[in-house]
Amino acid sequence: MGSSTAIRLIEPGDAAPIAAHRMRDIDAFRPWEPAQPPEFFTPAGQEERIDGLLAAHRAGTVWPGVVLADGQVIGQVTIGGILPQPHLRRGSVGYWVGSVARNHGHAGRAVGLALRVMTDELGLHRAEASTNLENLASQRVLRRNGFSPYGVAHSSILLDGSWRDGLLWERILGD
Description:
- The longest helix has 16 residues, at 43-58.
- This protein is of the alpha+beta class.
- The protein has one domain (5-125, 137-143): Gcn5-related N-acetyltransferase (GNAT) (Aminopeptidase), CATH 3.40.630.30.
- The chain starts with a strand and ends with a strand.
- It is built from five helices and seven strands.
- It has a seven-stranded mixed β-sheet, sandwiched between helices.
- It has helices at residues 15-24, 26-29, 43-58, 106-121, 136-144; strands at 5-9, 63-69, 72-83, 90-97, 126-132, 148-159, 162-172.
- The model has no long low-confidence stretch (mean pLDDT 92).
- 31% of the residues lie in helices and 35% in strands.
């Protein structure tokens, strides 16, 4: 419980620790995330993915971050789908924390820090998120950070071989 949580922009050097978490937790993430090819779980596959995320960051559509506990990479937090136009100004938050660091409040603190990035750095007005209907832990993280559910996206994502519904969440920033 005593470890500190921080987030920062992802770097190419984060590929190996991310791949290690993803490989170790492959079965734990299976119900919540789309299937991935085998190379996704390798440092080289993660390096390629990080390159793409950083290119999207340079284009202004993504803020890809890592979650740190006492300076060690334990997960990711990503602000995607950024719409910075004055009449929209929103983004969508996604996150995960490796099993070795779960149940210590890191995910909740990382989402809180990402909301600050959305407000202070990106100038966004609205935060959105989506969870699987059965992912109660993730729903608790969002509720603790001021999100409210506002709808269900029926049959919206293919997870573990079946189309699943997603619970949609929102938070107006600055409230």
